[in-house]
């Protein structure tokens, strides 16, 4: 809303300390106050090793859209904390050949192969199936007062939706989710050695699983996305490693994030009963409500980019290879973009957020996740009065913000 002065990047040891404190306190109840202090003190912070850390909305958006700034596979080696180390063989290796770590022209080719399945029109066709699943899960949870929302709905709903789309068999889907958790935990900027080792082992098992599954799709093609991926491999559109990385990326991205949107969203509504009532009375607010929940407590708190060719960002002259961190959680609470950013306002119309990033890597699953959130929230407010039922347990992660446990009681409305 306001015209902010241009940002001037600079070093600032105090602000750098603040950043590391945030990263070393994963699962923090309220990181937004820390982000605010960081943004006020040094909105474009240059760290000791030359990484540029952006906390303003406009600066993050500019960097994410800039053609001189892209991805590389050293993006995760932040080199901070006591446990800073090389992480050979982790997610970066496994996902190196997926669109997430690619630049054009590879990015364009890899994304185009699967993007048509994620358009609004294709995703809309899933509504009836998503509704049936959500309804059954909510009924089961309502029958168990004080049950864990994460376990009963937030995790199994998106796992089943993405697995149906990809063609991951029923028997395997939930069994592999802890391995994806372990893989992602190894990506934390401050992961310790054991976490990294477990992440690597889990990653190998996931790769073995998807290698076998893709072989099975080749032998017995079905009407699912992995079968189509195998067919494009046979047309030389992508190689073996790219095919496996793509399958693993879609499976992992398809639930890790949506799970936390559902959990963080419900938690925010439980803490703002007035907003929950407002949504019940005004179902037409559903589209802005979902965007607001994405903004208010974003499931993905930051991403990293690498400078590809010399460029000036927020007053910093950057050479190729420099890292740029875009702090989504901070940008989504920037008062220069959002009026009263710490207030949950389900009718908010300040403009788009960065929960899905922006530019070339804008979330491919945005329509799918919006559909799942819309179906869930509509059924929830129409049929139930949800109430907290015990202390939630936060997931000990800085990158992925969410809950491990969220006990609730769903009382059926008359
Ligand atoms: C990319 C967030 C759901 C698939 C991204 C990125 C973000 C994000 C921030 C950009 C990452 C970066 O630039 O480093 C979210 C959130 C979700 C969600 C907050 C739910 C609340 C999904 C779902 C899928 C999905 C359901 C389904 C498969 C992807 C893929 C990419 C991506 C494939 C990589 C796109 C590219 O590199 O071009 N997502 N996501 N996401 N997301 Fe999502």
From TrEMBL:
<comment type="similarity">
    <text>Belongs to the cytochrome P450 family.</text>
</comment>
<dbReference type="Pfam" id="PF00067">
    <property type="entry name" value="p450"/>
</dbReference>
<dbReference type="InterPro" id="IPR002397">
    <property type="entry name" value="Cyt_P450_B"/>
</dbReference>
<dbReference type="InterPro" id="IPR036396">
    <property type="entry name" value="Cyt_P450_sf"/>
</dbReference>
<protein>
    <submittedName>
        <fullName>Cytochrome P450</fullName>
    </submittedName>
</protein>
<dbReference type="InterPro" id="IPR001128">
    <property type="entry name" value="Cyt_P450"/>
</dbReference>
């Amino acid at each position: 809303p306001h015209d902010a002065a241009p940002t001037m990047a600079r070093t600032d040891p105090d602000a750098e300390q603040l950043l590391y404190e945030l990263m070393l306190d994963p699962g923090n109840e309220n990181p937004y106050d820390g982000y605010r202090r960081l943004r006020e003190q040094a909105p474009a912070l240059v760290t000791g090793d030359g990484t540029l850390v952006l906390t303003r909305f406009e600066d993050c958006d500019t960097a994410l859209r800039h053609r001189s700034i892209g991805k590389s596979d050293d993006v995760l080696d932040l080199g901070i904390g006591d446990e800073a180390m090389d992480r050979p063989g982790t997610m970066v290796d496994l996902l190196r050949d997926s669109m997430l770590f690619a630049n054009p022209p590879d990015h364009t080719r890899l994304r185009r192969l699967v993007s048509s399945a994620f358009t609004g029109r294709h995703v809309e066709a899933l509504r009836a199936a998503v509704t049936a699943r959500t309804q059954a899960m909510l009924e089961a949870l309502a029958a168990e007062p004080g049950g864990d929302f994460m376990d009963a709905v937030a995790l199994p709903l998106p796992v089943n939706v993405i697995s149906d789309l990809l063609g991951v068999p029923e028997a395997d889907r939930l069994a592999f989710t802890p391995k994806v958790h372990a893989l992602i935990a190894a990506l934390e900027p401050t992961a310790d050695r054991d976490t990294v080792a477990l992440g690597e082992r889990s990653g190998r098992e996931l790769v073995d699983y998807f290698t076998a599954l893709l072989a099975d799709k080749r032998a017995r093609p079905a009407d699912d996305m992995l079968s189509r991926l195998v067919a494009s491999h046979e047309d030389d559109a992508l190689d073996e490693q790219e095919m496996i990385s793509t399958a693993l990326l879609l499976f992992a991205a398809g639930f890790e994030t949506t799970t936390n949107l559902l959990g963080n969203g419900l938690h925010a509504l439980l803490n703002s009963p007035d907003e929950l009532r407002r949504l019940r009375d005004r179902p037409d607010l559903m589209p802005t409500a979902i965007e607001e929940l994405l903004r208010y407590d974003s499931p993905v708190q930051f991403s990293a980019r690498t400078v590809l060719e010399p460029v000036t960002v927020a007053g910093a002259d950057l050479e190729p290879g420099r890292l740029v961190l875009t702090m989504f959680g901070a940008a989504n609470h920037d008062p220069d973009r959002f009026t009263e950013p710490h207030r949950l306002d389900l009718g908010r119309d300040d403009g788009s957020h960065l929960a899905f990033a922006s530019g070339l890597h804008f979330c491919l699953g945005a329509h799918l996740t919006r559909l799942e959130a819309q179906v869930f929230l509509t059924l929830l407010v129409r049929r139930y009065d949800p109430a907290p039922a015990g202390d939630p347990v936060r997931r000990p992660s800085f990158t992925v913000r969410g809950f491990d446990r969220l006990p609730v009681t769903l009382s059926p409305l008359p």
